[in-house]
């Protein structure tokens, strides 16, 4: 489940356990048991079990499931996403159930991703008697619950008709809705499905897929380079299940089957698709080098604990890279600055001075490859800037 991977958002909400010192999984051979890691704390784990059982049957073999607890060690220090590399290289051949943001395809360093076996994302939950399928259709002044540091936090800036009620986790977000403290909620689909398994909730609430930046995610299996054969066999089996019409029932209700055009067995050596061209406006110089230098210290003092010393993400999402600033997401400087200045730091939202927020924003722009200039960024300019925020790195 992540996504920002505010990214990870679902993926960034996972907490991995460290590898247990097991020997690296051997190369996959025909009819050999498939070794997979599945997060036992995931609300969608039933889907992953069904998929791997069906894949094993397709391959005339069995599956060995290595459970890990995605909630283990969840504290203010978050987790190091490099733990996924350890899982994929030393505990199992495939790590199932990993969400990859649809527009970027980014995976944790040292891992690769299979083609998707499901499409999922963030959804809007509304009471049936006041049903609205999109954010724009919600009445003005509607209060919408959202989980802290997930992508839907970004949507309020573009939808002034709704107000945010930020909750620490999905459980509290759902409780806020079900206890009628808010009129709607934006949440990860698997969490919504689990909650709607309760007959009363299913009767009273509707679920709608969101069509917003960073709302669409692919469910993939992660693997280490040495397990390329196991990944290829998995992808072939998924493609067969898709072609036979069986995949859709395996992933429901937590996801939908990918479009058949998405089931492509690409060679690991095939060239990567060309990156989308960044809008010309992304080259605009909005800040000075002095502001970015000051922002580096402000970031270290107020942000690094959650977002990592190098903006790589920890308990909070990464604030640098393609997942944070994708051209397809169409975010502007003002969108991100509004979140930074209103919701951060997590412990005391809005507690920094205007200059501190501006300097932190300048540092974020610098770290994402946007150029410095001779004119200083101001609080009002940052809050109103329609300059696209696009990552300029490799």
UniProtKB/TrEMBL annotation:
Domain Cytochrome c span(s) in chain numbering: 290-368
Keyword Glycoprotein in record: no
Signal sequence region: 1-29
Keywords annotated in UniProt: Heme, Iron, Metal-binding, Signal
Pfam families: Cytochrome_CBB3
Gene3D superfamilies: Cytochrome c-like domain, Periplasmic binding protein-like II
Keyword Heme: yes
PANTHER family cross-referenced by the UniProt entry: ALCOHOL DEHYDROGENASE CYTOCHROME C SUBUNIT (PTHR35008:SF8), BLL4482 PROTEIN-RELATED (PTHR35008)
Protein name: C-type cytochrome
């Amino acid at each position: 489940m992540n996504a920002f991977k505010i990214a990870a958002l679902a993926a960034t909400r996972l907490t991995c356990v460290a590898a247990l010192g097991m020997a690296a999984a051997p190369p996959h051979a025909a009819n050999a048991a498939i070794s997979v890691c599945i997060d036992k704390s995931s609300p969608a784990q039933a889907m992953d079990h069904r998929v791997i059982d069906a894949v094993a049957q397709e391959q005339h073999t069995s599956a060995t499931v290595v459970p890990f607890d995605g909630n283990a060690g969840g504290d203010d220090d978050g987790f190091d996403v490099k733990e996924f590399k350890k899982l994929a290289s030393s505990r199992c051949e495939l790590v199932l159930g990993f969400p990859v943001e649809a527009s970027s395809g980014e995976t944790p360093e040292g891992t690769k991703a299979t083609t998707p076996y499901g499409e999922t994302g963030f959804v809007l939950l509304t009471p049936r008697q006041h049903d609205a399928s999109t954010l724009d259709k919600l009445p003005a002044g509607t209060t919408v619950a959202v989980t802290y540091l997930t992508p839907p936090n970004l949507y309020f800036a573009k939808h002034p008709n709704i107000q945010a009620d930020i909750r620490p986790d999905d459980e509290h977000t759902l409780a806020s809705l079900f206890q009628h403290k808010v009129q709607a909620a934006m949440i990860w689909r698997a969490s919504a499905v689990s909650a709607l398994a309760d007959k009363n909730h299913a009767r009273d609430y509707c679920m709608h897929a969101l069509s917003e930046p960073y709302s669409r995610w692919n469910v993939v299996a992660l693997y280490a380079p040495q397990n390329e054969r196991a990944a290829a066999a998995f992808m072939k089996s998924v493609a067969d299940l898709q072609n036979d019409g069986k995949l859709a029932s395996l992933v429901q209700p937590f996801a939908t089957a990918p479009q058949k055009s998405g089931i492509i067995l690409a060679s690991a050596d095939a060239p990567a698709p060309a990156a989308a061209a960044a809008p010309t406006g992304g080259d605009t110089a909005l800040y000075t080098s002095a502001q970015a230098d000051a922002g580096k210290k402000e970031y270290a003092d107020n942000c690094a604990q959650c977002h990592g010393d190098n903006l790589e993400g920890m308990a909070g999402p990464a604030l640098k890279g393609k997942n944070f600033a994708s051209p397809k997401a169409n975010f502007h400087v003002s969108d991100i600055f509004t979140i930074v200045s209103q919701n951060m730091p997590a412990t005391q939202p809005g507690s920094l001075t205007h200059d501190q927020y501006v300097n932190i924003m300048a540092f974020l722009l610098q770290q994402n490859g946007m150029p410095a200039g001779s004119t200083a960024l101001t609080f009002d300019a940052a809050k109103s800037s329609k300059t696209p925020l696009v990552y300029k790195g490799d």
